[in-house]
Amino acid sequence: MGSQLPGRFTIDPDGFARHHTGLGQMVMTPEDAQPPFRIILILCAMRTGSNLLCSMLRSIPGHAAFFEVFAGHGVEGLQHLPDCQAALEPRLGLHHDDKDALLAARAADPVGFFDALCAAARSVGHSSLSLKVLTDQLSAAHLDALLRRPHVSVLFLTRSRIARHISAVKGDILQNFLGVDTTGLQPTLSLAPFLQDAFDTDRILEGFHHQVRKSGVPRGLLSYEFDLDIAPHARFARLGAALRDIGVAADLSSAVTEDWIVKQDRAAHWTAKIANGFEIETALAGLGLADYARDEPLRDILPTSLPHAAQVMTPRNHLLLDEGGYNHAYSADPVISFTAIQYGRSFLAEWMIGPHPAFGTRRGVHFLKPTWTMEQPDLSALLAAIRQAEACNPGHVFVAMHVSDAEAARYRAHGVPSVPGNPNLFADESIVTCDADPHPDLPMSDAIYVARLEPWKRHELASKLTKPLFVYANPDSPVAEAQMQLLQQTCPTALFVNHQLGQGQYHYLKRPEMVRALASARVSLALSSVEGCMRASSEALFAGLPVVSIDSVGGRDIFYSPDTALIVDDTPEAVRDGVAEMLSRRLTRAEVRRATMARVKEERTRFLDAANRIVADHFGPLAPEIRMEPLLDFTVRYTPLSTMIEAIR
């Protein structure tokens, strides 16, 4: 026995004071000045890649990585750590290798068993421990007790709902969940059981998240698709970043994936993993649940690390207040802002770096809207500014708005949470109507292209069309002037609308006139291969014009549908033939607008759901609701950063 303390404490040889007063009341405190013993709880459903994650954690020196400690059939992972087992059994009063007695001790007091396991791991020299808890393995009361242990952090692990369910179905059929190649097995999936499984799993994981959030312990999120099912070096980099975010320092320099971990299903898309993939995908789309099935639960939760503050002595850079952009102050208390990422920078994040919090004691969520695709640029400078701004302003987080899965993956790789938020969602469809009369000073044309006169806009792809209409910004730069002269040669039949209406001088089209110009054409063009979301493409759809586009990166296809948009090769002949094909469909403007607005409603709901989950997660039950109406058209309203900050302060 160790030395006695008042009450019912005893000091174990490993240096922990132990006190049993019932469920959740056992506390462990170091008697000496040893470094804290870190505990990582992995909360997940089955078939999410948790074995892969646990095996990766086994590569960390000095770390005791267990698997399913609370599995019904055993204490998984203990067999790989015989020194821990030898130290654990005496603490529980058990004989060596008595599996039945071990399970009985765990069933009698899961929390006491967990504490004994931690003490055993520490006593044999480990400095940290991890284990996974599946959705059906612990009661809420037991999980609450574990979350009250000192130095606990949580990693949520999620996976696409439909991919996880298919993996579970295959495992049930084969009665084997490890090391078996299931690619050739293509069962017929039933929709109702999948949805029931997805809803039940969501409910349990949301309960987990509520408990973790209430406990205040550091929490992070890993996704199987984004963080684990990737190249090994990138996989360990993502794990290292996630561990740092929850306050756990880990040496992964010599980490390897263990040989027994194999990818069980090599099919690239979930529909190829089952016999009736097309039918299930169609049924989900008909129910409006296609994105829900593809997405993973909890994808929008914010990671919360241990509180920290940056030591910045230099004054805040007030020159940044003069930067323009598309900024919107949504709420002053708590602080909610929408600002732009311009030239790969967040001017708000850079301005918030200073010796004192920018907004006093108020907490904040700052949504970042890119003005260009973020699939390709270097994000290191943006990430550094965000990290430093968050460190200087405890309680403030930055959330990117992504337009594609590729962008979401890049943000996640850099530790930046994101929500689906294409800037075209905020275009005000009431301004661009589908019943306007054609412009009286313009001839009717088969096609119109609204785009700056820049080489990357690729106007020359319209050279095979008869009298296309070009609408553009003032070509007052040398590049734009040269491009206009070139296009006058390569597209001799094109009508340069702004100069036509200005009788040889540049004429700016205000919105009412722009709507009538759109009404003077039957099809809209989108001919760049890389840019931002191309607002003009969405406005053309609002005006009832179907779109002919080349394949592109940047998110302009968010409102496209097979009926209202056609993707063609990037040649003048393909563009010409695409316009002819679209004209042959004889779509009415009302039909095009109606199909577009259905997509708008769907994507806005998706954004609002994700944004409100983020806000509720950060601010709690009194969080203000994000609504669409105040945000309409903020992406085209020029608002200096100083104006937005003044509205908040």
Automatic annotation (TrEMBL):
<dbReference type="Pfam" id="PF00534">
    <property type="entry name" value="Glycos_transf_1"/>
</dbReference>
<dbReference type="InterPro" id="IPR001296">
    <property type="entry name" value="Glyco_trans_1"/>
</dbReference>
<protein>
    <recommendedName>
        <fullName>Glycosyl transferase family 1 domain-containing protein</fullName>
    </recommendedName>
</protein>
<dbReference type="GO" id="GO:0016757">
    <property type="term" value="F:glycosyltransferase activity"/>
</dbReference>
<feature type="domain" description="Glycosyl transferase family 1">
    <location>
        <begin position="448"/>
        <end position="595"/>
    </location>
</feature>
<dbReference type="InterPro" id="IPR027417">
    <property type="entry name" value="P-loop_NTPase"/>
</dbReference>
<keyword id="KW-0614">Plasmid</keyword>
